[in-house]
Amino acid sequence: MYESGEDLRRRVLPYVRQGLAAGDAVQVIASRDTEASLGAGLGADADRVRWGVPGVTYRSLGPMFGGLRDYLARQARAGRRVRLVAEGPPIADPARAGAYLRFEAASNDVLGAYGFPWVCLYDRRRHSGSVLEQVEQVHPHLLDPVGEPASSARFRDPDDFLRAHPGLLSPIPAAVDLDLRLTAADQLSAARREAAAGASARGLPGEDVDDFELAAGELLSNAVRHGQRPCRLRLWATDSHVVVRVDDTGPGDDLPTKGFRPPRPALGHLGGMGMWVIRQVADAVHVCTSADGTAVEAQFHRRGPAAEQPRAGEQPHVA
Q1: Where is the Histidine kinase/HSP90-like ATPase domain (predicted)?
Q2: pTM, 2 dp
Q3: Which of 29, 39, 17, 151 is closest to 86 using CA atoms?
Q4: Who has the most CB within 10 Å: 50, 72, 179, 225?
């Protein structure tokens, strides 16, 4: 966590230079401003850094997480040594910021399994105090002012963090675009298709409609088969997203931690497949469990200028 461009370079450039000296492939995913700031500090060595990961953007968080996982898996299979620097995106919406931080927590296990060192960048001027407090909870180490790693006293076990931060559900509009109640499994197919048609009509890009239908189907399937019937699907649109929410009266106690780690059916790990699919294709997923039941909400980006997201980590104030 840094407070200026000079502070950023003091903390991060030693880590980058150590990687270059060791022959690691140093990969930086950051805004143009941050790239320029780090590049200026590196001088001629900037040409040895790989700026960006092809196909990985922060426009949609689930695919971003999956893209990074696939990239690291390929590097590990090829026997390459990789050292990463990644800048978190500027997120004004607290709920979406929470969704991003949940992926950060899960990264300790899921992406950390490949054994590559990784530094995440957070500009203190661009994030609230509550977000920065959670940043310390999801990262086991912090870089001190001269680039030395120090243990984070606030670090929490990833599952503990996920249970404590399951999500912040969106307010439900007085009039939603679709409201379905299901009592039997034979209603799933028709409900899934109706949800997909509703999402398409409300501005979901055509290439994302199949993913939305898949997620809606998994949400309904989980509720009908594992929750308590009846379950209820509601769909509405905001300026930036199409939102689908499914409620049932079951407990759903383990859902906040489900879907971040790849299921392993070959080892008999069959649970969590539905939530895995949902988290991989949606932008943000929020869960709420209470005495009244379980609610799961998935958000997908709409088309149009209001839905556009900046390049990975795009933000000013770095130079």
Answers
A1: 207-304
A2: 0.89
A3: 29
A4: 72
